[in-house]
Structures are given as C-alpha cells and as structure tokens.
Design goal:
Layout: H1 10-18, H2 28-31, E1 34-37, E2 41-47, E3 73-79, E4 81-90, H3 91-99, H4 111-135, E5 145-147, H5 162-172, E6 179-183, H6 184-190, H7 194-201, H8 212-218, E7 223-227, E8 230-232, E9 242-244, E10 250-253, H9 257-261, E11 268-273, E12 277-283, E13 291-304, E14 310-314
Parallel strand pairs: 1-11, 5-14, 6-7
Antiparallel strand pairs: 2-3, 4-13, 6-10, 8-9, 10-14, 11-13, 12-13
Length: 318
C-alpha cells in the first residue's frame, strides 16, 4: 500500500469535487472527456487507420481457406501527471471564524473550505489552458489543418464562407466530427456571418444572429463548444493583463468518452487517476500562531489518440 505523507480529508475532497465553474466558462472536460484509469501509469493502443478501410479479397474457393487478416496496433505507454496547489490558512483566521456569530443559513464560509474552493478554481483554469493549447495546436491534426489569412478569414463577411469551409472539412474526415470548438471571439463572428445566417434562416439576408443550437443543426454537429475562460497573463506584481484562454482558431473534432473507453477512434481524451483530492495539515512554523497548509490536486494526462479525427482552422479571425 502506498504511504501518503499528506492526509486526505474526505470532507474537503467533497468540496473540491463539488466546486465547478459553469459549463459555459470551462469546456475542457467536454473537449477531452475524462476516462478513469486504474494506475498512474497506463497503456493504450494506437491502431493504424488504413486497416479498417482496406478490404482484402474475400472470395473463398471450394477447397481453399479464407484469406487471413491481421489487425495490429501500437501499444503506447503513458503516465498521469500530478497537478496541485497549496495555500496557508492562519489559525487566527480559523479562530475568528469559529468565534463569530453566524446566521442560521448562508453567511461566511469556513476559511479552510474557501481555500479549497479557490485552489480548485485555479487548478481547473490551468487544465482549461492546457486543453485549449492542445486543441489549437496544429501538430495534433496531422495534415488536417489550414492557416486562414486575408480574405479567407471568417471576419471578412464579403469574401469568406465559413459554413462551406466547415462542411467540406467535415466531409474530408474518415470519422465525421461531432463537435466544433471555438473561442468566444470566433463564435461572436461566426454567429453573425452572412453564410451562417442564411444557412439557418434560409433567406438571402446579410444581417442577423444565430443560436448555438441553430448553428449546430445547420452544420450537422452534436454541439458547438464555446471557450469563455479568461486568464491573467501578466507576471506577478505587474498590472493584470486579461486574455482569453481559447484563442482565435476553430477545431472540428470527434470526441466521445464512450468511444475512448472501448478503444474506438476519438480525437482526444483525458486519463484520470482517482478523483480530486483535498486535505490539510498543521503548519506551526508560519506566522506567530501557526496555521494549516491546505492542498488540492488531481492526477490526469491529456491524450491525443487519433489526430485523423480532427480538423483545425488556424487564425479563423484576425
């Protein structure tokens, strides 16, 4: 049995698991769904694309044997990575909270619980950034990528045609995509683009706004995922500089937790070892009266399993 020097508190772990940003803010788990693994080190099989589409001679003679086929794959060894953060909660703060008069319902949150919630939020944002960078990296799509420029960019309402571009790209993939992943800025442009407005309302109008559901239906997709998260990219001590975690590209992907679990093609998924963990341990050396060191973390690894199941439009808008 593994020895853990940092005690895990089930109550605090429940706070970490329960605390989530709205789905509209963080979409990492829907882009690269989580698949539980039994150990931190895990293996998965990468199968060649051609073997599922290359048909051998199936005719069998009266005295002959059927042709033998061999379905081979490459076993890939990988390992989940620990991600965690610590915070110091002072004994003074805990004592003040425990001694204050509290309303029957609502009111202040215990400093320990508040620390868990804030740490969890930062860990989730870090994952969102990792998944966003992975999703919009051309290297994760093989040859299925195009860098848009000039009049082909979707914010050129006169010359570009994003609806046609998306439909043609979807038709080119061996596994039809079920999701379109966009940053908020790209979605704001796409939902107002004349080609999208006309495709949804079926009239030759150049102005209008379409909903996510309308656009997904027109593009024959299960859903369109919009990355909303903001991140401060300034160095510590400098004025805050807020930027979107999801940039100005667009990704068509086939992503399915079920497919990943049964070894079927899925562009990407996330191996998850265990659940969120949270706990605290006395820290007597900090401050005059000491405090508690609060820790929150998770153990995951983002995996690109089938680059052929995706198509990337880089720099979809300027």
């Amino acid at each position: 049995m593994a020895v853990q020097s940092f005690p895990i508190n089930p109550t605090l772990s429940a706070v970490a698991i329960a605390f989530r940003n709205p789905e509209s803010r963080l979409i990492a788990d829907r882009v690269m769904p989580r698949v539980p693994v039994a150990t931190k080190a895990f293996k998965w099989t990468r199968y060649g694309t051609a073997q599922g589409f290359t048909v051998p001679n199936t005719m069998v003679g009266i005295k002959s044997e059927p042709n033998m086929v061999d379905f081979g794959g490459t076993e890939v060894s990988d390992q989940c990575v620990d991600f965690g953060l610590d915070d110091l909660v002072s004994n003074d703060g805990i004592e003040n909270f425990e001694n204050m008069d509290k309303p029957p319902s609502g009111g202040p949150i215990h400093p320990r619980d508040l620390s868990v919630m804030m740490l969890t939020s930062l860990i989730q944002l870090d994952r969102e950034i990792r998944v966003a960078n992975t999703t919009f990296a051309a290297a994760n799509y093989g040859t299925n990528t195009v860098a848009l420029a000039g009049t082909s960019r979707w914010d050129d309402f006169v010359n570009s045609n994003p609806v046609n571009a998306i439909l043609v790209a979807a038709d080119s993939l061996l596994v039809r995509p079920n999701k379109l992943v966009l940053g908020r800025q790209v979605w704001t442009v796409l939902r107002q683009h004349p080609s999208m407005v006309q495709a949804v309302y079926k009239t030759a109008q150049n102005r209008g706004v379409v909903s996510l559901q309308m656009a997904a239906e027109a593009l024959e997709l299960e859903e369109i995922l919009i990355g909303e998260a903001w991140v401060n990219t300034a160095r510590r001590g400098q004025p805050a500089a807020y930027n979107r975690a999801w940039g100005k590209s667009a990704a068509l992907i086939y992503s399915s937790q079920t497919a990943a679990q049964i070894g079927q093609p899925s562009w990407g998924w996330t191996a998850q070892f265990g659940n969120y963990i949270a706990g605290s341990i006395p820290e007597p050396k900090r401050g005059l009266r000491g405090g508690e060191l609060v820790r929150v973390g998770e153990t995951v690894k983002e995996v690109i399993a089938a680059a052929e199941c995706g198509y990337l439009f880089q720099t979809a808008i300027a």
